[in-house]
Amino acid sequence: MYNVRKINDDIYYLGANDRRIALFENVYPVPEGMSYNNYLIKDEKTCLMDGIDESVSRQFLENLTYALEGRKLDYMVVQHMEPDHCSVIPDLFKMYPEMKIVSSVQAFKMMENFYHIDTKDRSIVIKEGDTLSLGKHELHFISAPMVHWPEVMMTYESTTGTLFSADAFGAFGAMSGNIFADEVRWDHDWRDEARRYYVNIVGKYGPQTQAVLKKASTLDIKMICPLHAHIWRKDFEQILSRYHQWSTYEPQRYSVAIFYGSIYGNTQNAAEILAMKLAEEGMRSVMVFDTSKTDTSELVSRAFQYSTLVFASATYNAEVFDSMQNLLTELKNHNLSNRTIGLVENGSWAPMAANKMKAQLASMKNMKIVDPIVKIQSSVSEENLKQLEVLAKELAANTK
Ligand code: FEO
């Protein structure tokens, strides 16, 4: 049965939730599920803003049929050609033979590659600055490359001041009826998942996100409608300022996050001791993570959040311990920069982890390693205790 909500005079939310999904993009755990949004504008012309994921396509098609109230669908704007928003294009193509698809040239190429449909006579190719009138409503197209794919366009509807923002400003997690950010405790319940979503999906492309924020700052925005999670109709600064921080790799919390990779618990012991000493130095909200236990997407998200990061790793096969290596690779892949770093290594016969970690951090931008680098041989010694105490003092002094 249909499940539609009117969000503006002529704009309807048609989205749906997948609560069974385990891994978004088959990579990121989503224990609270995933929401997929799209919108219908009903004017002299009817216009669907994006499609939906295959997993919830049945719900979407019922919603669309209901919301159209027997009218034909004139346009489908495809802002982003990732399949989590596009699986229904072939169905809609058949269901609405008069429907024109409005999208970027790159997206049409992808559409052909994904779905092998011939859109030639039913395509309207748009680029930055183009407009499309629906009657009372007018769509203005804005190019947003790499937020999240190269073909992405955003759309500003100037009559209502609605920005259809594609993947930007979304979050992991299914919604529960409250589809507006002001209907939930966003900062308390959703901010961390919004950061984990942004950082892992788009985090690599900070400058491109900055470019989009600059374009958005010139618009008179009354509502932001993303393709995932909540619609914003007030307190825009809350989400825009977060995106500014995340896309400039600016930490939100000036404190220490300790990541350890430990085989028998001795490297963990050093991490726990360091955390306690940091607390004694007055550091607050220190966090300790086991890289083997916590999902990498969460670790990357926390690394974006914290100003000061400690990597404590066992040596394994003369390399950095596997789960720590995975984390470092992901941090580099996501362009993390501008952090203060502490290092701890462990090795029973040939400790190698610190040098290997140092080499990787050197390939990242502006990572400042603080001395001393603590070298453990099997388990924490009295000498290591003193080194950890000095490291705690240095990290605290370098964490403003
Ligand atoms: Fe929600 Fe990049 O797709």
Explain what this protein looks like in three dimensions.
- It contains eleven helices and 23 strands.
- The chain is of the alpha/beta class and 400 residues long.
- Helix 4 packs parallel to helix 6, helix 5 (206-216) runs antiparallel to helix 6 and helix 8 (296-305) packs across helix 9 (322-333).
- The model has no long low-confidence stretch (mean pLDDT 97).
- Residues 80, 82, 84-85, 148-149, 167, 227-228 line the site of MU-OXO-diiron.
List of distinct ligands in this structure: MU-OXO-diiron
Quickly count the helices: 11
Helix % is 25-40%
Question: What is the tally of beta strands?
Answer: 23
Main sheet, how many strands, which sense, barrel? 7 strands, mixed
Give the strand line-up of the largest sheet.
1-2-7-8-9-10-11
Shape: elongated
Rg measurement, Å: 24 Å
Mean pLDDT rating = 97
- Low-confidence stretches at least 5 residues in length (pLDDT < 50)? none
Distance between the termini: 54 Å
Strand content: 15-25%
Which structural category fits the helices and strands?
alpha/beta
